[in-house]
Amino acid sequence: MPITAFLDIHVKAESLTEAPEMLHDTLLTTRAFDGCLGVDVLVDTEDPTHFVLVEQWVSLEHDAAYRTYRAGPGKSSLGPILSGTPVLTKFEIATDI
């Protein structure tokens, strides 16, 4: 079953000018990863340092493989520009509602 993952991040104010390019470069790999159906980047209208990445995955297994990759050899370069720990939340479609 497809899932949607929301990755809520905040970047340091002093990194705001470089953040879009760094996100773009990082998401090239994410979007090409097996099972990724797409990624949208939302920016908070009140706080330009606040982003939410909306990721669509074929399955929980594909998402898990991606998270394992990012925790190991595919570690992203975003760490130094983040102002806190990202928050990841995963959802699936409720078919019985």
What does this structure look like?
The protein has a four-stranded antiparallel β-sheet with strand order 2-3-1-4. The protein has helices spanning 19-32, 60-71; strands at residues 3-10, 36-43, 50-57, 87-92. The chain is of the alpha+beta class and 97 residues long. Strand 2 and strand 3 (50-57) form a beta hairpin. It has a single domain (3-92), classed as Alpha-Beta Plaits. The two termini are 16 Å apart. It has two helices and four strands. The protein is globular and about 45 Å long. The chain is 27% helix and 31% strand. The mean pLDDT is 96.
**Sheet with the most strands: spatial strand order:** 2-3-1-4
Overall pLDDT: 96
List the total number of helices. 2
Q: Please tell me how large the radius of gyration is.
A: 14 Å
Ranges with pLDDT <50 over ≥5 residues?
A: none
Largest sheet composition: 4 strands, antiparallel
Might you state the CATH topology name?
Alpha-Beta Plaits
Number-wise, the strands total 4
**CATH domain class name:** Alpha Beta
Strand content: 25-35%
Explain the layout of strands and helices.
Layout lengths: L2 E8 L8 H14 L3 E8 L6 E8 L2 H12 L15 E6 L5
Antiparallel strand pairs: 1-3, 1-4, 2-3
Protein name: ABM domain-containing protein
Pfam families: ABM
Organism: Cryobacterium lyxosi
Structural key phrases:
single chain; 97 residues; alpha+beta; Alpha-Beta Plaits; 4-stranded antiparallel beta sheet; 4 strands; 27% helix; ABM domain-containing protein; Dimeric_a/b-barrel; ABM_dom
